[in-house]
Amino acid sequence: MRVQHLFSTILILLASQNLFAQKGKPLFPQMPGMVSYTYRSSFSKDPAATLDTLKALGIKDMEFSSLFGKTAADLKKLLDERGMHCSSFGVSYDDALNKTQQVGENAKTLGAKFVRVAWVPHKGPFTLETADKTIADFNTIGKKLKDEIGLTFCYHNHGYEFEKHEDGTLMDYIIKKTDPAYVSFELDLLWAFFPGGNPAGLLEKYPKRFKLMHMKDLRKGVEGNLSGGTPVTNDVALGTGQLDIPGILKAAKKSAIEHYYIEDESPSYAVQVPQTMAYLKSLRN
Questions:
Q1: Residue 79 phi, psi dihedral angles, 5° rounding
Q2: What is the tens place of the pLDDT at every residue in 88-145?
Q3: Which CATH architecture fits 27-282?
Q4: Is the distance from CB of 212 to CB of 154 less than 8 angstroms?
Q5: What residues pair up with 154 in beta bridges, in sequence order?
Q6: What is the SS3 assignment for the chain?
């Protein structure tokens, strides 16, 4: 009994020291959302059980990147039963452009406010010509979604858009040339940093254009490029990689970001997601 009491006392002392060390207000007090792609393998097998797992972690806000063989109504029912919700629905460029009405109806059924595209089909380096077509298509998609369905269209950067252009990049060009009334953006931290961009700098430069965020970190020692691709094992728990997460979150608090989602493409997501959540909870101003 004395040993058990001593052990309990030590735990209490360690906890009090930890609380004492964490001075200041929480930098990220809210519960983050989750991108379904993180749990894509599990969702493909059993969406209900996967949502149970996420609910147990405290997750309530979802961004679905797929319907996983279900209807939007099926997923909405599963979310409602668990007190969860979907705020954003990710689709392909082709579906957003050519099946806009169907995409919008699915998003509405899910309860989402945003429709997101995360990849522009292209071969080789991303060019000005491709950027111009992308801008025209995004304005068309965004206008239809907003005017006819009441949804906000967002583009999720993926790294290749950071090709140099004039005094900036083609990412700058896309942001400046798209109509802010119809096109917003989702900032993927890894895919802004990997090609040499500055995630916090983008938020400071365009504080009203980014509405959503994918929170990810890049393994230390990995060098980036403009390919838009890197092995999924280079996704690591927040705070263990190369990105300045506190600096980015401070910039985000001054921006128009409405939803923060964890996305971890790594096969180690089951271990890394809880680490990421603990790290976010530990941050202080």
A1: -65, -45
A2: 999 999 999 999 999 999 999 999 999 999 999 999 999 999 999 999 999 999 999 9
A3: Alpha-Beta Barrel (3.20)
A4: yes
A5: 116, 184
A6: CHHHHHHHHHHHHHHHHHHHHCCCCECCCCCCEEEHHHHHHHHHHCHHHHHHHHHHHCCCEEEECCCCCCCHHHHHHHHHHCCCEEEEEEECHHHHHHCHHHHHHHHHHHCCCEEEECCCCCCCCCCHHHHHHHHHHHHHHHHHHHHHHCCEEEEECCCHHHCEECCEEHHHHHHHHCCCCCEEEEEEHHHHHCCCCCHHHHHHHCCCCEEEEEECEECCCCCCCCCCCCCHHHEECCCCCCCCHHHHHHHHHCCCCCEEEECCCCCCHHHHHHHHHHHHHHCEC
Structure tokens at 188: 């993927």
Structure tokens at 147: 């005017």
Terminal alpha carbon distance of the chain: 41
For 259, list phi and psi in degrees, rounded to 5. -135, 130
Instruction: Using the predicted structure, report yes or no on whether residue 15 has a pLDDT greater than 70.
Output: no
Q: How many CB atoms lie within 10 A of CB 25?
A: 8
Q: Give the residue extent of every domain in the chain.
A: 27-282
Burial (Cβ within 10 Å: 0-12, 13-18, ≥19) of residue 124: exposed
